[in-house]
Design brief:
Blueprint: E1 7-13, E2 25-26, E3 30-33, E4 37-42, E5 51-57, E6 63-75, E7 78-82, E8 95-98, E9 101-104, E10 109-116, E11 126-137, E12 155-161, E13 163-171, E14 179-188, E15 193-201, E16 207-216, E17 222-227, E18 232-234, E19 239-245, E20 252-261, E21 267-276
C-alpha cells in the first residue's frame, strides 16, 4: 500500500484569546512577564517615557522572536487585526519599537523598548489604540513522521502562540463619553440563564465598565444585584457583547435596571421588563 502524503500542521492560537489578560503568561517557552495592556495619557505633541515589554524564554533551547504591530477592532464574539495605522483610531504610527527581532538564550529574557509620540494635532480627541504582537519564530520540525498501522503516515500538530499587548493612548482628558445598548437578548438554556447586551460606544473615549442589573419584582420589591464581573472595555465606534448571569434568579417576571458603570460621573443605564423561564430540557 502506498503511504499517505506527509502532512505538517501548525495550530496557531489566536491572539484574541489572550490579549485581554493582565497576568504573567508563560507556555513553557517564550512568555511575557507583566500585564498585556499598556495605557498612557498624553497631550498632543507630547512623547512618553520609554516603556518596556519583558519577553522571557523558559525553554531549554534558544528562542527566536519577532515583534510587530497591528490594528485591533473588537467585534461581537471575537476581534479583528489589521494593517497598522489604517483604523481611524489607531495609534500604531505613534509607537516606536526596538528591537523587532532577536534571539533569547534559554532561561534568559530580553526587553522590547517602546516610546509613544502623539502628533501635535489639536484635533486629536479621546482614545487611540493598537496591538504589539510578540511571536516566536518556530521552524517546522524536520523529523521523520511516525509510521502508523496500515502504512499510514502520522500528522504532526504544533501550537504557536503569539502574545498581543494592547497599547492605549488617551489624549489628555478629551473626548466625549457615551454608551448605548443596541440589542438585548435572553439566552435561557438548561443550566444557564444569561442576559446578553450588545453595547455600542457612541463617544470618543475608551470606557472600562462594571456591568450589572438590579432586579425588582412586579410589586417593586428589590430582589438583588447581579453581575459586576468581569470589567468590560468599550471602544469608541465599536459594539461589544456583555453578559449578566441570572442563573440563580427564580423564574418569573421582573423589572431590571441595567447599569454600565465606568466610574465617577460616567454611569449609564437602561430599564427593561424581563421574563425568566425555568430550566429547559
Amino acid at each position: 500500500m502506498t503511504p499517505t502524503v506527509q502532512l505538517v500542521a501548525l495550530l496557531l492560537i489566536p491572539a484574541s484569546l489572550i490579549c485581554t489578560s493582565a497576568a504573567a503568561i508563560d507556555t513553557g517557552g517564550v512568555g511575557i512577564l507583566g500585564g498585556l495592556r499598556r495605557e498612557a495619557t498624553l497631550e498632543p505633541g507630547q512623547q512618553s517615557q520609554r516603556g518596556t515589554i519583558l519577553v522571557t524564554n523558559a525553554g531549554a533551547e534558544p528562542a527566536e522572536v519577532k515583534v510587530y504591530q497591528t490594528d485591533y477592532t473588537p467585534l461581537i464574539g471575537g476581534c479583528k487585526y489589521g494593517e497598522p495605522g489604517r483604523s481611524p483610531r489607531s495609534n500604531a504610527k505613534w509607537i516606536a519599537l526596538t528591537p523587532l527581532q532577536f534571539v533569547i538564550p534559554p532561561g534568559d529574557s530580553t526587553q522590547v523598548y517602546y516610546t509613544i509620540s502623539v502628533p501635535a494635532d489639536p484635533e486629536l480627541r479621546g482614545s487611540y489604540w493598537s496591538m504589539i504582537m510578540v511571536e516566536p519564530i518556530r521552524p517546522i520540525s524536520e523529523q521523520e513522521p511516525k509510521r502508523l498501522e496500515n502504512d499510514q503516515i502520522g500528522v504532526g500538530v504544533r501550537s504557536v502562540v503569539r502574545y498581543a499587548v494592547l497599547m492605549v493612548t488617551h489624549v489628555g482628558n478629551t473626548g466625549t463619553r457615551g454608551l448605548r445598548i443596541v440589542e438585548r437578548t435572553m439566552d435561557q438554556a438548561k443550566d444557564k440563564r444569561l442576559l446578553q447586551l450588545h453595547v455600542e460606544n457612541t463617544g470618543e473615549r475608551l470606557l472600562r465598565c462594571k456591568v450589572w442589573a438590579d432586579l425588582y419584582d412586579q410589586e417593586g420589591r428589590y430582589i438583588g444585584r447581579y453581575g459586576r464581573e468581569p470589567e468590560y472595555g468599550f471602544y469608541p465606534g465599536c459594539v461589544v457583547q456583555a453578559q449578566i448571569d441570572l442563573t440563580e434568579v427564580p423564574p418569573g417576571a421582573y423589572k431590571a435596571l441595567v447599569v454600565l458603570d465606568a466610574g465617577g460621573e460616567d454611569v449609564f443605564g437602561a430599564q427593561y421588563d424581563l421574563q425568566l423561564e425555568g430550566p429547559t430540557e
